[in-house]
Specification:
There is one protein chain. The protein has about 140 residues and is an alpha/beta fold. It has one domain (about 5-140): Rossmann fold, CATH 3.40.50.9100. Helices cover about 30% and strands about 20% of the residues. The protein is built from 5 helices and 5 strands, in the order E-H-H-E-H-E-H-E-E-H. It has a 5-stranded parallel β-sheet, with helices on both faces. Helix 4 (about 85-90) links the parallel strand 3 (about 70-75) and strand 4. Helix 3 (about 55-65) runs parallel beside helix 4 (about 85-90). The protein is globular. The chain binds 1,3,4-trihydroxy-5-OXO-cyclohexanecarboxylic acid. 1,3,4-trihydroxy-5-OXO-cyclohexanecarboxylic acid binds near residues 13, 77, 100 and 104.
């Protein structure tokens, strides 16, 4: 039987993880973390996509969002600006968990507002790369 598919989407500037403001976002690149994350979920079929473009992220939400068992989205700064991404999350059928590496509530005020959260199953912030694993565990778990 096919393994259930889960999808991770990273937005702008997250291609620079490990090099970008490491005091905020850590020293590990997503590429280095990805095989470790996959190894933690051998029972799942995990997919990953990163783009710096809003349209490309929306296209992926459309492509994956009707068949995925669940999506994990770190939309970077688009979180705080993008009605179009919010509409795309509202439009798709698969659940989305919003993830931020940093604790956005402990930073500048403009980072405290997310256009996306209202359309997401939940939000994880401030737990670094661990947030992706926690989001996947939530999506894979049976409801309590
Ligand atoms: C971020 C938080 C955003 O405010 C910021 O623009 C990012 C990264 C995070 O993962 O902490 O690019 O989404």
């Amino acid at each position: 039987m096919a393994r259930p598919a889960y999808h991770i989407l990273n937005g702008p500037n997250l291609n620079l993880l490990g090099r970008r403001e490491p005091e905020l976002y850590g020293h590990t690149s997503f590429e280095a973390y990805w095989p470790r994350l996959q190894a933690r979920f051998p029972e799942a079929d995990l997919h990953y996509f990163q783009s710096n473009g809003e349209g490309a992220l929306i296209d992926k939400l459309h492509e994956w969002g009707f068949s995925s068992h669940g999506l994990v989205l770190n939309a970077g700064a688009y979180t705080h600006t993008s009605l179009a991404l919010a509409d795309a999350i509202a439009a798709i059928a698969s659940p989305v968990v919003e993830v931020h590496l940093s604790n956005v509530f402990a930073r500048e005020t403009f980072r405290r507002h997310s256009y996306l959260s209202a359309h997401c199953a939940g939000l994880i912030a401030g737990m670094g790369l661990k947030g992706y694993e926690l989001a996947l565990r939530y999506l894979m778990d049976e409801p309590d």
